[in-house]
Design brief:
The chain contains four helices and seven strands. It is of the alpha+beta class. The radius of gyration is 19 Å and the shape is elongated.
Length: 166
């Protein structure tokens, strides 16, 4: 049974804004045609190779993309507190976070705040900065976490997701 916690349990809010639950990509008709062709070819390949589970995964993935495409992402609250980071209903204590980095390249449309976890099993946390000034965010986070100055661009996984509009 999930625990109910109010915002006071997360510490004093320092800064916060609303972020989309996921990235919504504008897909053209050509993208859909290409995706259908690739999907059909992969399903045909999976039947010839006898890998029916792969065919099921491709079909389920197609349904998920279609269902998500018709919806706008919900706006969720993001907050930096004196005890950790709050993303929607999830709280991440500073003890579980390894470091943070800010990639701010407006000309390339990259404005993100990244958190890496100490536990390598968890994926990185990527937060869009939108129109927020990154300097006060950086100054406040430096009080609690080290900054990864080596990250100068977005991760390859995010660049590929943007490229393929996934």
């Amino acid at each position: 049974m999930p625990e109910k916690q109010n915002s006071a349990d997360y510490g004093k809010k320092i800064i916060g804004w609303k972020i989309p639950e996921y990235d919504k990509h504008e897909r053209t008709q050509n993208w859909y045609i290409s995706a259908i062709i690739v999907g059909v070819l992969l399903v045909i390949y999976s039947f010839f190779s006898g890998n029916f589970l792969f065919a099921a995964i491709i079909i389920i993935g197609a349904f998920v993309i279609i269902m998500h495409d018709g919806q706008e992402p919900a706006k969720i609250d993001f907050s930096i507190t004196d005890e950790g980071v709050v993303v929607g209903k999830n709280f991440y204590d500073y003890d579980t976070l390894k470091d943070f980095s800010i990639v701010y390249k407006p000309r390339q449309q990259i404005k993100n705040l990244y958190f890496e976890f100490k536990n390598a099993i968890r994926p990185r946390l990527s937060i869009p900065l939108d129109n927020n000034n990154p300097l006060p965010i950086r100054q406040n986070l430096l009080k609690y976490l080290p900054e990864d100055l080596e990250r100068t661009g977005e991760p390859l996984s995010e660049a590929l997701a943007k490229l393929f509009k996934l």
